[in-house]
Prior knowledge:
This protein has helices spanning 6-17, 30-47, 61-64, 94-103, 148-164, 178-186, 191-202, 206-212, 217-225, 230-239, 244-263, 323-328, 347-355, 370-376; strands spanning 51-52, 58-60, 78-80, 87-90, 113-122, 134-143, 170-176, 228-229, 268-272, 285-291, 299-307, 313-322, 338-341, 359-362, 381-384, 387-390. It is of the alpha+beta class. The protein has three domains: 26-165 and 303-331, Bira Bifunctional Protein, Domain 2 (BirA Bifunctional Protein, domain 2); 178-274, no CATH class; 338-390.
Amino acid sequence: MKGPSKKQAGSMYARQALLPEGFRDQLAPRAEQEASLVRGLVDTFLAHGYDRVSPPVVEYEDSLLVGAGAARGHHMFRVMDPDTQRMMAVRSDMTIQMARLAATRLADTPRPLRLAYAGSVLRTKGSQIRPARQFVQAGVELVGSDSVEAELEVIAVAVEALHSVGIANISLDLTLAPLPNMICEKIGLDETTKNAVLAALDAKDFGTLSQLVPQQSSLFADLLAASGPATPGMEKLFALGLEDEAANLVARLSELLTMLISRLPDVSITIDPCETHGFEYKTGIGFALFARGGKSELGRGGRYLVAHHGAAEEPATGFSVYLDSLMDALPVAGGPKKLYLPFETSEDEANKLRREGWRTIQGLTEGQDSPKEAARLSCSHLYYQGAITAL
C-alpha cells in the first residue's frame, strides 16, 4: 500500500500544526520563563501567609455562575458531562473558584481567609488588549475582612510580587466602579439612559454625555476631570459634594490613598472614577497595575462580595496577575546553560554536576566528536576529562 505523497504529507502536517485562534504552543525558553515567574509570584504570596489552593479546570456551570461569576458567564466554554448530563464550564477566571471555595469547603475556616492560586484559564473570545484565549492567571484573595487595611495588604502584596519577578517601575490605577452607577441612580436616570451614560463615561466621551443628560453635563464633566494623578483627582472628587454611599466610597478611597502613599512611596498612583469595564462585579475600590511604559495592564483586582448559602454575602478583596502581559513587560529570556557530557562520562560524575546546578546533555553514541555534538545540540559548555569548557 502506497504512503501519502509529499504534497499530502505537507498538507497533513500543516493541519496538525494549526491551532485555533487565540491559542499557541509555549516553547522553550518562554515556557520555562513563565513557570519561573509563577514560582516567584507564588513564593511572595506564600511568604505573606496565603495558602495555595488548586481547583479543577472544569466545574458544573451553575457553580461558576454564582455571585461574581454571573458577570463572567459569556467568557466560558461549555461542555456536557456525559455521566450526569449536566452542563459543565471551563474556568475563565480563577477568582470565581476562590469565591466558591470560601463559601463552601472553607466556609468554617477562621477569617480573614487568605488564598493563593495559579493556573490556566480559557475564554471564548480574546480582546484587543489580550487576544490570547488561554493564559496563566496567578493571584491572591483575602476573604472576610471589610477593612481598608485588607485592600492595602492585597495591593502591597501585588506590588511586592511584581517587584520580585523583575518589574521595577510600577504604576497603580485606582477605580471606583460602583460610583457612576450610584450617581445615575441618585439623579433618577432610567435603565436605558443609565447604561448609555455608563458606556460614555467609560469611553471618556463627554460629547455623548452632554446629549444624554444635558442638565447634569457639568456634574459628569467634573467627574471625568477627576481622572488622572491621584492627589488632585481626590480634591476634584470631594468638590462634587456627593452624598450617602457615594460620599462614603470617595472617603474610603481617600483613606486608602493616604495609606498607599505612605506604604508604597515609589509607586505612581492615578485614579479613574469613571472606569467600569472589566470591574463589573467589583463592589468597591478596584485597581489595575501597570509597568510604566507597558502596553497593557499586568493585573487587576479590588473589592467584591462572596455569595454564601441563603443569600448571605461576605466581603473579599483580590488581585490577579496575567502572565502573558507580565512576560511582554520583561526581557525575552535566554536559553539555559547546558553542559554536554561525552558518552564515557560516568553516572557518578554526571550526578555530581547536576547537584552543582548544571543541566546536562548526555552523549548517547560512543566515539562521537564531542565538541561538534555539543554545538549541534546548542550546549553552552562541554565537560571533558574532568574540566568544563565554555563553547
